[in-house]
Specification:
The chain is of the alpha/beta class. The protein folds into two domains: about 10-60 and about 160-325, Rossmann fold; about 60-155, Rossmann fold. It has 14 helices and ten strands. It has helices at about 10, 60-75, 90-100, 115-125, 135-150, 160-165, 165-175, 190-205, 225-230, 250-260, 270-280, 290-300, 320-325, 340-345; strands at about 35-40, 45-50, 80-85, 105-110, 125-130, 150-155, 180-185, 215-220, 265, 310-315. The strands form two sheets. It has a six-stranded mixed sheet with strand order 1-2-10-7-8-9, sandwiched between helices. Helix 2 (about 60-75) packs parallel to helix 3 (about 90-100) and helix 3 runs parallel beside helix 4 (about 115-125). The radius of gyration is 20 Å and the shape is globular. It starts with 8 loop residues before the first helix and ends with a helix. Bound molecules: ligand F0G. Catalyzes the gamma-elimination of phosphate from L-phosphohomoserine and the beta-addition of water to produce L-threonine. One of its GO terms (molecular function) is threonine synthase activity. InterPro entries: Ser/Thr_Dehydratase, Ser/Thr_deHydtase_PyrdxlP-BS, Thr_synthase-like, Thr_Synthase_bac/arc, TrpB-like_PALP, TrpB-like_PALP_sf. It catalyses: O-phospho-L-homoserine + H2O = L-threonine + phosphate.
């Protein structure tokens, strides 16, 4: 048998990406993530599949876009890269910059970035700057700073990021042999929903899939500018990754929803945490922002607003945000290291 190793999204989908022979491929062999069946759809009459993006090299979907953005930055002989982030973009930028041997600056909100994400940046040698502001202001700042400092901006306002992220839509079509009926996705800065929609359309135009999905974007109730139709000044939610009040790809998200006949909805923090728990009870551990897509689908399912087959995008790993679990569950107190004590604890004795 021919040896077969997943090559990363650039080599797997090169014809759909802006690469030439002169572009170095900076990769950690991202993508190739599993599409898993979930039991949670059954009670509401849905076939629920989840695209588990947590198995990417830095534990989130950001790696798909970062491999393209950092490869293009290396091709352009950039001095370094910079981004603002609620955490996952930062972790991914730090890893791919390290891979390319480029300096990396991360501008993050001083409060609310999950510890697991910050330590990834530190470990990979990035310069981390915490600012006394929320994400939206941090993004404004890096958009101004990048050209002044001669650094390449790798937020999703960089089109190469979105080009890479659309490969997740390709993988879903390849796994199913067609596009799903419905695609549900958490929405923060709105780059990912924009990228997925572009991906589904491009794949159909290339004759690689025959249909298009209905796009369902899910926001957290305290950070739901797209649902409310206006920016939110002080976004609040337990899902820190999507604590965003002024999405940069606002128009892209609205276009995806309108063109696909889809919808946007908001879910409460309680619904998000309940969905996170339910997913974990079938072995799928995600961070709160990711669970928003499932919370939204279950809510629509209960209201009989959805049927058939739904793919939910699970954007990031639960290990990145241990505090959110720890806040709700005490770690067990140690017991004597004896068989008796263990039997007693398990009520087997
Ligand atoms: N889920 C997770 C885990 C995220 O980290 C993000 C965005 C999203 C969903 C929303 O994706 O912004 O394309 O709509 N995180 C960005 C960051 C903002 O800085 O890591 P989006």
């Amino acid at each position: 048998m021919q040896p077969r190793m997943w090559r990363g999204v650039v080599e797997e989908y090169r014809e759909f990406l802006p690469f030439t022979d002169a572009t170095p491929v900076i990769t950690l062999r991202e993508g190739g993530t599993p599409l898993l069946e979930s039991r949670l759809g059954t009670p509401v009459g849905l076939r629920l599949l989840v695209k588990y993006e947590a198995t990417n090299p830095t534990g989130s979907f950001k790696d798909r876009g970062m491999t393209v953005a950092v490869s293009k930055a290396a091709e352009a002989r950039a001095r370094g890269i910079i981004c603002a982030s609620t955490g996952n973009t930062a972790a991914s930028a730090a890893a791919y910059a390290a891979r390319a041997g480029l300096p990396c600056a991360l501008i993050v909100p001083a409060s609310g970035v999950a510890l697991g994400k910050l330590v990834q940046g530190i470990a990979c040698g990035a310069t981390i700057i915490a600012v006394q502001a929320a994400f939206d202001r941090a993004l404004d700042l890096v958009r101004e700073a990048a050209p002044l400092l001669g650094l390449t901006l790798v937020n999703s306002v960089n089109p190469h990021r979105l080009a890479g992220q659309k490969t997740a839509a390709f993988e879903i079509c390849d796994a199913l042999g067609r596009a799903p009926q419905t695609l549900a996705i958490p929405v923060g800065n709105a780059g990912n929903i924009t990228a997925y929609w572009a991906g589904f359309k491009e794949y159909r135009a290339a004759g690689r899939s025959k249909s298009l999905p209905r796009m369902v974007g899910v926001q957290a109730e305290g950070a739901a500018p797209l649902v409310q139709g206006h920016p939110v000044d002080e976004p609040r939610t337990v899902a820190s990754a999507i604590r965003i009040g002024r999405p940069a790809s606002w128009d892209g998200a609205m276009t995806a929803v309108r063109e696909s006949g889809g919808t946007l909805l908001a879910v409460t923090d309680e619904e998000i945490l309940a969905a996170q728990d339910q997913l974990a009870r079938e072995g799928i551990f995600v961070e709160p922002a990711s669970a928003a897509s499932v919370a939204g689908v279950l809510k629509m399912g209960r209201a009989r607003q959805l049927d058939g087959e739904v793919v939910c995008v699970l954007t990031g790993h639960g290990l990145k945000d241990p505090e959110v679990i720890q806040a709700r569950a005490n770690l067990p107190a140690p017991i004597p290291a004896t068989l008796e004590a263990i039997s007693e604890r398990l009520s087997l004795g």
